[in-house]
Amino acid sequence: MKNELVIVIDFGGQYNQLVARRVRECNVYCEIYSYKIGIDKIKEMNPKGIILTGGPNSCYEPDSPTYSKELFELGIPVLGICYGMQLMTYTLGGNVARADKREYGTTDVSIDNSSPLFEGFENTNGFLMSHTDFVENLPEGFENIGSTDHCPNAAMQNTKKNFYGIQFHPEVNHTNNGTEIIKNFVYNICGCS
User: Fold this and answer.
1) Helices (H), 81-149
2) Active-site hit among 103, 151, 171, 190
3) How many CB atoms lie within 10 A of CB 87?
């Protein structure tokens, strides 16, 4: 029997190994790849889901790590975490900008718990934020599913395409129920068994 595979695409963030570890804690096989991995290799692996990690760059700057729009045309569910959410937004036609106020530390996030990503959650949760940029305008087809006092788009979804983005870090211990978010992604959205 071939393993169900979720791949983590690494954009240089400090928590990338932790993201993979959280997936594995959900009993789902996971591999980490650099953002330089070719689209044909991803097609060949045929993952059940893709997670885009955080990173220290601004996705709108010319030399920042990026990925082609083709990644979002594979029909594979994608979860963007922090920089990964910003990159998804930027690549799909939304707007990312420098925030007036940087968010760092555990922050109360108001969420839409009718989202499959937040199934079983309270309306407000303490999640670890660490960002200087934010999603100013969502890409077409997305809806807001989370906000803070300083970050109007702290979480987003496009349920038709199974694309999800979160500005916070579910992989760290400072995020309440962070592993549950990963579990909801791999089971509810990617359909892993």
Assistant:
1) 83-91
2) 171
3) 28
